[in-house]
Amino acid sequence: MQEALKNLEAAKDAASLEKLAVIDDDIAAFQEIYDMVVTEAAKRRERLPAMQANVDAAQAKYNEAHNRTSGLQAELNKAIDDGASNETIKQLRSEIMSAERREKSCEDDLHHCQRRLESQKKQVQYFESEAEEAKAHMDEDIAKRNALLGDLEKAQAAYDDACKAYEEAKAAADKATSPEITKPAETTKPSSSAQPAETAQPASSPATGKDAPSSSTKQADTTTGKLANTGDTAPSAITLAGIAAAGLGITATATRRIKNSK
Predict the structure, then answer these.
(1) DSSP string, 195-249
(2) How many whole angstroms separate alpha carbon 33 and alpha carbon 135?
(3) Under a CB-based contact definition with an 8 Å cutoff, are residues 5 and 130 in contact?
(4) pLDDT one digit per residue (tens) for the chain, 262 residues
(5) What is the largest CA-CA distance in the chain?
(6) Burial tier of 91 (Cβ tally within 10 Å: 0-12, 13-18, 19+)
(7) Could you tell me which of 162, 239, 251, 262 has the C-alpha nearest to residue 214?
(8) Burial class of 65 by CB neighbour count within 10 A (0 to 12, 13 to 18, 19+)
(9) Phi and psi torsions of 102, nearest 5°
């Protein structure tokens, strides 16, 4: 559990609010760059069709001028071969020079349009490359942030599992070492109809030699039995004192009778 706690603390430190805030700032910055360069790339890409059209038009003009020059040159060669007059040859040569200038101008226009188109394409590629780079940095930071939070979640789960295992092991150990608690024997509630044990009868009188108890003694026993039949398991002190007084009276009467008989 200590190792799990150590890993959890390390994960919390790595994914602290301050460090996550720095990563979030980087993500926001790269997101801003990405949006900007993507917008610029889109703007420049929109111009490519028109610029390509200019190149195609310049190419057509150049081809026309070149064909004009080539045609005049062919006429001059034919005129020379045919023995045309000097005036005709001079005129053709003048037209060829004008055609060549036209061709050269069209070629320059073509190269200019081509350079503009190539430059525009390079700008589109540059901004698209910047967008890809910004997105790569942004994705890297997002992956880093997610990894830190994932490590924190895993460390927290591992720590929770370790705590649970520790608590279960501790509970099992406590159960194994604690003495078994035995339940106390159930006590039987006394019934109200239970009779108390009979009290010992007093010894028979020496004068009569009879074992039978006197009527007074029977009266005391009857009184005690009545008390028992009331259901009171503990007679009051007043009742017990009355029974004792009756017994003493019986004893005193019997003693006087014995003395008189002598």
Answers:
(1) PPPPPPPPPPPTTT---SPPHHHHHHHHHHHHHHHTT-SS--HHHHHHHHHHHHH
(2) 9
(3) no
(4) 788 888 889 888 988 999 999 999 999 999 999 999 999 999 999 999 999 999 999 999 999 999 999 999 999 999 888 888 899 999 999 999 999 999 999 999 999 999 999 999 999 999 999 999 999 999 999 999 999 999 999 989 998 888 888 888 888 888 888 665 444 545 444 444 444 444 444 444 444 444 444 444 444 344 444 434 444 444 444 444 444 444 444 444 444 443 444 4
(5) 211
(6) middle
(7) 251
(8) buried
(9) -65, -45
Asked if 159 and 5 count as a contact pair (C-beta separation under 8 A), the reply is yes
Q: Which two tokens stand for residue 7?
A: 């890993």
23 is written with which tokens?
A: 């990563």
Residue 202 has φ and ψ, to the nearest 5°, of -70, 150
Q: Which amino acid is at 115?
A: R
Nearest to 31 by CA among 146, 136, 149: 136
Cα–Cα distance for residue pair 159/6, rounded to 1 Å: 9
155: its two tokens: 């460390």
Are 196 and 223 in contact by the 8 Å Cβ rule? The answer is no
Nearest-angstrom CA–CA distance, 207 and 261: 9
Place of tokens 């028979």: 204
Residues 6+ apart with CB under 8 A from 103: 62, 65, 66, 68, 69
CA atoms within 13 A on the CB side of 204: 7
Q: How far apart are CA 212 and CA 233, in angstroms?
A: 28
